[in-house]
Amino acid sequence: MSTQQTVPTDTHKAPVAANPDEGRYPLERGIIGAIAYNLGMAFTRMTLKLRARGLENIPKSIPYVIAANHQTYVDGMWIGAYLPRLHFKHLASLTAKDLEDQHGFLGKVIVKVGRGIAVDRFGNPIRGLIIAKKKVEEGNILLVHPEGTRSPDGELGEMKDGAAYIAQKGKVPLLPVFIEGGYEVFSRHMKWPKPIDKSGKRKRVTIVFGKPLDPHDFANAKEMTNALIAWMDDQARAYHRKLHQAGV
Q: 127-136 as b/e, with b when 16 or more CB fall inside 10 Å?
């Protein structure tokens, strides 16, 4: 349940006080996070057909920012499964502060697995974005969901500028990722995953990695976000065509 907000263009006029919690982030994965990740992926491999395309597009070096559509609680786990081991070690995620504070044990586990950096999605997000930029500059890979919350209907939501802002300010590539089929497996309306379809077959989830966007190719974060949106829309249309051809 990562979050993202539009970044004001005049933030340089309003200095943000140092955050006393900055040293907490990203949260350590630790033993609990590592066990939860391994159990989650074992369950995924046994019950789903998890695939990936475009692995050649993953940057060879770190850091970079990942911008992905948001369909499930475990999008980050699935994406992380296809990153090189060293990259996964440095993978962090921009997460809603309420996920850690108000979603019980599950929320606390999710932010540990994702090495969360908290943003208050109901308040001023600038402090969290500034911390996130610093953490990228320190060598972390950052996963951001520009929609800000899980899709209510499986479709793409409005995408904000935060991911592009961090990539621009950090001068690092922005790796677009599109998740196909996640909503059908574990939407926000489900208490538990449903990896098996009505015919008893395992559902398919595909993680599509696009070509990285170079911040030097764009004048500003808005322009970069527009390129990201165009790519996401292309992937969504291709996925819908695939479903139509399959008679779904």
A: bbbbbbbbbb
Q: CB–CB of 36/109 below 8 Å?
A: yes
Q: Give the span between the Cα atoms of 179 and 186, in whole angstroms.
A: 12
How many domains does one find in the chain? 1
Whether the ω angle into residue 63 lies within 30 degrees of 0, i.e. cis, is yes
Cα-based distances in Å from 244 to 5, 77, 179, 233, 237: 33, 28, 17, 16, 11
- Take residue 232 and report the two structure tokens written for it: 């996401």
Spell out the per-residue pLDDT of the chain, length 248, in tens: 444 444 444 444 444 445 556 788 999 999 999 999 999 999 999 999 999 999 999 999 999 999 999 999 999 999 999 999 999 999 999 998 878 777 778 888 999 999 999 887 766 777 888 899 999 999 999 999 999 899 999 999 999 999 999 999 999 999 999 999 999 999 999 999 999 999 999 999 999 999 999 999 999 999 999 999 999 999 999 999 998 888 77
Nearest alpha-carbon partner for 22 in 131, 136, 112, 163 = 131
Please state the pTM of the whole predicted model: 0.89
In a domain, 173, yes or no: yes
Residue 208 φ/ψ, nearest 5 degrees:
-105, 120
Taking CA atoms, 67 is separated from 30, 79, 165, in Å, by 24, 11, 11
CATH assignment at residue 173: 3.40.1130.10
In a domain, 153, yes or no: yes
